[in-house]
Amino acid sequence: MYNFDYLRPASLAEAVEAMKGEDAQAISGGQTLIPTLKARLASPSVLVDLSGLAELKGVSREGDKLAIGAATRHADVAGSEAVRSAIPALAALAGNIGDPAVRNRGTLGGSVANNDPAACYPSAALALGATIHTSAGRAIAADDFFLGMFETALEEGELVTRVDFPIPTAANYQKFEQPASRFALVGVFVARFPGGARVAITGACEGGVSRWDAAEAALSSDFSAGAVTGMAFPADALIGDIHGTPAYRANLIGVLTRRAVQACG
Amino acid sequence: MPGIKLTVNGKTVEKTVEGRTLLVQLLREELGLTGTHVGCDTSQCGACLVHVNGESVKSCTMLAAAAEGAEITTIEGVSSRDGTLNVVQAAFQEHHGLQCGFCTPGMVMSITDLLRVNASPSETEVREWLEGNICRCTGYHNIVKAALSAAETLRGAQPVAAE
């Protein structure tokens, strides 16, 4: 990889200041960024390491939502009693990202800020109707945050600081893994709230993580696997690659959605 | 270039590294600890797995500069000074958990971390845990057997007989 300067800010304020440097790039766990740097797909002049900032770490339950700091690692989310009791589907999702060593480095904030079209966390944020808080003082609804493959509403130098997840009545995440990368070939996160259901699809869509409006409407009036049986996600919006055709992914979306609904109980 | 101070296998190390220096490069090229291997260099295979503050991390996917203040343990740090194998290493020997040996340091470090968080793993849990450690020789069977045997030994039970 190309060389870069490395900065270890002592506070979020220092990190925000450092991010004003030309071609500055934030790094947290680096589980995506370091491979990207090795492949010379990015050449930042300076890396600003957020992984030591205690103010960005931790989980707390605040009323009807869970607040998780951006630099909280997947292993810590997976093992958190607060997450396990409030949103067990989220703990399970975090506990199945990559492998144990990857989960000891990778973070929630890094995952949502990168918005990989096959990452797990964006589907949870979108299905649960999370709010993404940033260093610019913005609170961005997940619906407005994920704009497309690797694209988010973050401005230049703006950092994710925290994600607030509303606590659902029930939720489940079903992931069909691409076995080599351990990313989702298709992942479906279903969340049930008193006001209705939300369904988010990852791994499959040309536009990155996406909601499945038709399934949401069906599940909001009848929350049962039968309500979505026979429904198909539009295949023209789906990725086709060596791992699966759009039709294959469309079929998986249907199967995984039904399984997720059943698992919600 | 960042100056870093960390502990490697109990010894304090102070180095100046480039921003891009990986932890595995620091260990192998600067400190001569070549027991940590680079297999895939894409964080898939786990041959580079070391412990950072007691937890498994792929050292090919962590910057050396990010290890400031950390306690690192490599495969060289797990056996006794006189060369006596630790429990996991001995179980690998007993159960033929290795053939070419390339993945073995990462396997031993990974299983040691598993037994720290789960003293009584099931066979399924061992196999799931080893998702990020690839072995191209053994078919994993004897590695899993070694892990279960080491777990029993550490729990103070009778080790399962080698077959």
From TrEMBL, chain A:
Molecular function GO labels: FAD binding; oxidoreductase activity
Name of the protein in question: Carbon-monoxide dehydrogenase medium subunit
PROSITE patterns named in the record: FAD_PCMH (PS51387)
SMART domains reported for this sequence: CO_deh_flav_C
Organism: Albimonas donghaensis
Keyword line: FAD, Flavoprotein, Oxidoreductase
Pfam families, per database record: FAD_binding_5 (PF00941)
SUPFAM superfamilies linked: CO dehydrogenase flavoprotein C-terminal domain-like, FAD-binding/transporter-associated domain-like
Xref: InterPro entries: CO_DH_flav_C (IPR005107), CO_DH_flav_C_dom_sf (IPR036683), Diverse_Substr_Oxidored (IPR051312), FAD-bd_PCMH (IPR016166), FAD-bd_PCMH-like_sf (IPR036318), FAD-bd_PCMH_sub1 (IPR016167), FAD-bd_PCMH_sub2 (IPR016169), Mopterin_DH_FAD-bd (IPR002346)
Residues covered by the FAD-binding PCMH-type domain: 1-170
Lineage top rank: taxon: Bacteria
TrEMBL record, chain B:
Single GO MF annotation: oxidoreductase activity
Keywords for this protein: 2Fe-2S, Iron, Iron-sulfur, Metal-binding, Oxidoreductase
Domain 2Fe-2S ferredoxin-type intervals: 2-78
CDD domains in UniProt: fer2 (cd00207)
Name of the protein in question: Carbon-monoxide dehydrogenase small subunit
Species, as recorded: Albimonas donghaensis
